[in-house]
Amino acid sequence: MDVYQDAVQYLQSEHVPVEVETAVLVEDVFHEEEEEEEVVMPSYLSSLQEESIDLPVTPTSCSSEEMLERRLLVLKGIVESEEVYLRELEVLLMPMKALRASAGTSQPVLSSQQVHTVFYQVPELRDMHQSFYSDLKARLNAHCHTDPASGEQRDMNHTDSELMVGEVFLKMVNQIGLYGGFIQNYEDAVEVVRKCTQSDPRFRTLAESMMLNNGADKSRTKYTFEALLYKPLDRVTKTTLVLRDLLKTTPAEHSDYVALQEALRLSRSFLSGVNESSQCKRDVMLSHGMRRQLMRDGFVVDGTDGERNLRHIFLYTDLLLCVRLKHTTRGKQDQYRFCWYLPLAGLKLHWSADQERPSDTHLRLHTIRSKMYLLRQQIRQQSRGSRGMSFVARTKKKLEQMDLMLLTYSPLYRLELHSPSGKSHTLLLSSLYELEEWREAIHKLSADNIETVPPDLLTLTSACVKLRMTQQPPLQISRAVEDTESLCGTLRVAIHSARGLQQPARVYVCVEVDGCDFYDNETQTHSSVHSLNPYWDQELSFQVDGAQNLRLLCVSQSDRRDDTVLGKTTFKLESKSLHNGWRRQILQLGSLELTLSLKYSHHRLEPPSSTASPLPVFSVPIETVAQQDGVLVPHVVRCCVEEVESRGMDEVGIYRVSGTSSEINALKNAFNSSKKIQSCVITFRLCCYVFNAVMNKCWESSHS
């Protein structure tokens, strides 16, 4: 700023006119201005005070070309500032692995719980900003390139190619809810740091001498641990300021304007929600000295009364609230409408999975996925061509509508909620992993027997807009920015075995991949035999588009109650390490160790095909059944052998007396339709019959 002021004074002394009021400086992009509203907040959140909610007016004192030049300067300043912020987060995370490793020793620096508290949500924030920085820098590099003839860097003509960054900012702001967890945990993290700094000289040495490299000049800046912990709080406010300055330099007719306007609204709504959350914690006092606060929220399908409706669920300390999002025009405040709520005290949970969809639902999902695939291909082609931006916007709108339909009709997993008052509701989810997270969160709170204070439903529903951590449903359009690290092709997962069970059980493994939902992205192994060390040796195959994470769950199958999730984990998929043949992995799922192998083949994907009906198990060659199951020994053989081994010694005439024809046909139909075979419905005589039939088939195949 000093250099700028000197330059202005010099030009004025030479009688050269200078427009000081409209100049946009890169150095001032992240400068905090005076607050226009005064709100009540904790002292450590003083930098999160929200500004005026009026959207900025695009200045008209300069031409569009001048505004675009200033806009480019603002974007370059944002990239440089993001690079510094990422280095600060890396320095903050640097000691995390060492502290976590020492937690398991006889003389830990921090306990495991303290390490979790200090670094809570910091890795997720780093990953979010790393993705934002990479996407934004890639678009700037594509816009500002080097001329091969002259070797000098030049800017592309604004009329030839517009610099489109609105989706990048909107994608980042849609994840800004991660800061909500960090802000709620901040006081606890600082308390741990201060306490350990005073009591442990080893941690004091670490906390008071954290060094940050300053880039090209190779100088280093010394930070304290507490100062680095404050950086995310400072950053979340600057996000709103950056968006406001960027919108001021974006012409109203620019294709980015609406997206940036929406991103600014979401950012301001989040900051307002931080203040609303702190007020809600003070206003509502529950039993045992607890206060009502938001624990989790997200979009699910409400399947009550047999209908499917996309709803936003808010889990508070003492109740579960279901609301409906009322869509408004972009740039205006969203609104919610109340649907129902259930107190958590005494709430009973029951989950199940639909074994198969009706044929009409299968056909509808296939039609939706096929249309989504074609629309996505059109968007990719249009982004490389010269088609108008209005045509791209219409295509994205169609894709969003198809995506909402897919979110509504694809879920297979049911989470039933039963209140002591007699009220019941059913939530439908596409992912068993997500269902288990919801079930764990609700069960933990309902087990505390919190006495619910009757809520003011109007106030609680109105506050949802500001309190929400999930801004939008997980649509394909929100993942429009391509990621070169994601997988596109065929992913093969071979599930081998597991160990660590406390008691024998029949266990199956559920495998899920993320990415675009054009193809089936969830499947599971067959149930193992009743054992302490289950094994499967089963290969599963996925057609993936944009996959980055693999989620696995080990589930114990039960005959009399809900299946029990024994453990779950998420594995980061890296295309480079999976290209070179099979890669063996041992993953920790709670107390279980799961052994599996991964292999990835990159190729162009074909349009999604309708799911064919499963091939029959009986009246076909046994090698065909084994190939269909992806195992060496077919599932039907394992089931029957297990029953013979477990009950064979207690039966008389095990191969002499057979079951009735009707029961045998019912069991064969169950195997042919790929339904789960519960041991309680399998009579011993049927297993002996099936076992003999299979062995005869094997004998006939070997002598043919």
UniProtKB/TrEMBL annotation:
Domain C2: 471-587
GO MF annotation list: GTPase activator activity; guanyl-nucleotide exchange factor activity
Keywords tagged on the record: Guanine-nucleotide releasing factor
Subcellular location: Cell projection, Axon; Cell projection, Dendritic spine
GO biological process terms, semicolon-separated: signal transduction
Pfam families recorded: C2, RhoGAP, RhoGEF
Rho-GAP domain location: 620-704
Keyword Electron transport on entry: no
Domain DH: 70-277
Matches recorded under PROSITE patterns: C2 (PS50004), DH_2 (PS50010), RHOGAP (PS50238)
InterPro entries: Abr/Bcr (IPR037769), C2_dom (IPR000008), DH_dom (IPR000219), RhoGAP_dom (IPR000198)
Protein name per its UniProtKB record: Active breakpoint cluster region-related protein-like isoform X1
Organism: Solea senegalensis (Senegalese sole)
